[in-house]
Amino acid sequence: MKKECLTRVIVFSLLSWFLPYSVSAQTVKIGLISSVTGPMAAVFKSEIEAAKPAAELINKKGGVKVGGKNYMIEIVTGDDQSSPPGAVSAVNKLLQQGVMLFVAPMFIPSNMAISSICEEAKALRVTPNCADLSLFAAPNRLNFNGEASYLNVPHVYMKLKALYPGTKRIAIIRPDDPGAKAITERTIEEIRRQGMEVVFHEAYKIPTEDFYPLLTKALQTKPDAIEGIFAIIPWMRGIINQAREMGFKGPIWLVSACGDTNLLKAAIEPKYAHDIMQAAPDLTSEKMLPIVKEFKRLVETETKTALNYDHIQTLRALLIIVQGIEKAQSLDPERIAKALEEMESIDMPYGKGRFTGKDLIGQNRLMRDPIPFSRFVKEGRIEFEFLPLK
Q: Which residue, among 244, 188, 250, 177, has the nearest Cα to 215 in the 3D structure?
C-alpha cells in the first residue's frame, strides 16, 4: 500500500513538472514585458501597476475556465530595462520558466526585438496599443494589437469635420519617431479625403520642451487646426500652452491619444484648455461601462492613485487573452490565436470588439472596438462620447 501511494506521488509530481503553458496548481501565468527600470519606466509605470488589479478583476469572476476547470490568472512582470536588449533578456527568462502568453511591450523597439524569439517559441503576444501595423503582419502570426489607433483615423476625422466644418488648413506637429510613420501617412490621407489640406508638417526631436521655434514656423502658414499626432502628455503640454500663448485659438487635435484625458487637462493652463480633442476616454464619465467602474475601484485601492488611460491598456490585453483561452478551450498559443482571429465578438472595456485587418495586413490581428472621444470645451470642461463603428 505504501509503495502504491509513493508511486502515485511520483507520477503526479512528474505530470506537474511536464505540464505545459505554465499551469500549476490551477494557475495560468501571463508575462507582462515592460519598463520597470530605465528612462521609459515613468511612462509605463501605470501599465505595470495595473497588473495586480487586472488579474484580481478576472479572478474575482472565477478566472478562466478550460475543460471544466477554473484557472486563476497570475501576471509575471519582466523588466525590459527600457531597451531592446533588456526586452530580449526578459522574454527569454520568462520563456525558460514556461510562460507562453504575454502582454507585449508598447515600446515599439522592444516589441520588435522579441518578435522573432516569440514566434520561434510559438508564444502568443497581445500588444495593448500600437500604431505600427508591421508588427502584426507576416511573418508575425502570434502578435495581436489590442488597440489599433490606425483604424480610428477616419472615424475621428469624420467627427472633427462635423464639429469644425469650416476647417481647411491643418498643421501637423509630431515627434521624430519611426513608429509614427504609418499612422501619420494614414492621417494625411484622411485629411485630404475630408477636403482639407496639410499646410505644415514637421517632426521634433525627442525630448523637446521648447516648441516656440517650431510653432513660429507652423503658425506662419496660418493653419485652422493643429494635429499633434503620436505625442505624449509632456510634449502636448508644451505644444498646447505655447501655441495658445502665441495667439493660436483654433482647435488642436490628437487622432491618437497622448495619454489620460484628465492628466492632459491638469497639464494645460485652464485658460488654454478649449477646443482640444483626442481619441481617448474620460474615465470619470458616467458613460463608462461597469467593468471599467469596477476596475477603477480595484486600481485606486491598490495604487492610491486615480485610474488613468494607461491602466486600461493592461486590462485590454488581459481581457483579450482570457477570452481567447476560453473560446479555444485550450492553453495552446496557436489555438488561442486561431480563436481570437475568428471570434465575432470580444468584450472590451469600451464595448464589444473583434479582430480585423485582413484587408490591410493579410490577417485579422487589429482590434476594432468603440472609439472613446474626448473634447475640451471652455476652461477644460470635458465632453465625452463613444464614436460608433461603421
A: 244
